[in-house]
């Protein structure tokens, strides 16, 4: 089932949703100020004027607008949508940034989504952990109440199963939610490393071509797992 944004399910509800695009490379934090993005037509003028600047130095830049947070160090650039804000503009902002800064060395890309689902009951919440991590084997060696705290799964990115696409992988994390009572947290990370045989524009192209699919696939994974665990 295709899924995007907020939707009420028969057994679970997406309560908190955010996304981010993270790049590894070599950056000059001091240039990443709200008005720079405005001048490049990457942020509306009004949003740039109202931005809250937390810090701008040669070593770190961080500011936030009503929709997003930008964090930059010499090795890392991150654009994060605020919880429940529309994350769609992240793609154009980040791709446009590094189209403009075309000579910036980029090493790796992460397309990420964070989702907190409310379960209909404590019983259903416990059922998710019990099905994902059966407790019988642990009861033979551990004592007291046994519960799943974190599960990490790695897989191939759809469309990138070719062995030549080394450095491309999907990681899914499942944990009890820290934000929603009887909630389940899913974090997905679609990771792409720069090919040794191509230029850095390969990374910006993947932002454009993979962002929407990665975002929607994250929700499909969560919906499938929660439906399977509670049926």
Number of strands: 9
Low-confidence parts lasting 5 or more residues at pLDDT below 50?
1-9
Main sheet properties: 9 strands, antiparallel
Helix content: 25-40%
Question: What can you see in these coordinates?
Answer:
By secondary structure, this protein is an alpha+beta fold. It has a domain at 13-18 and 110-230. It has 6 helices and 9 strands, in the order βααββββαβααβββα. The chain has helices at 34-39, 45-49, 89-100, 122-132, 136-139, 201-230; strands at 13-25, 52-56, 61-64, 68-72, 76-81, 106-118, 151-155, 169-176, 183-193. Strands 2-3-4-5-1-6-9-8-7 form a 9-stranded antiparallel beta sheet. α3 runs antiparallel to α6 and α4 (122-132) packs across α6. The longest helix has 30 residues, at 201-230. The relative contact order is 0.19.
Name the descriptors.
9-stranded antiparallel sheet
Give a nutshell description of this structure.
The protein is α+β, with helices and mostly antiparallel strands and about 230 residues long. It has helices at about 35-40, 45-50, 90-100, 120-130, 135-140, 200-230; strands at about 15-25, 50-55, 60-65, 70, 75-80, 105-120, 150-155, 170-175, 185-195.
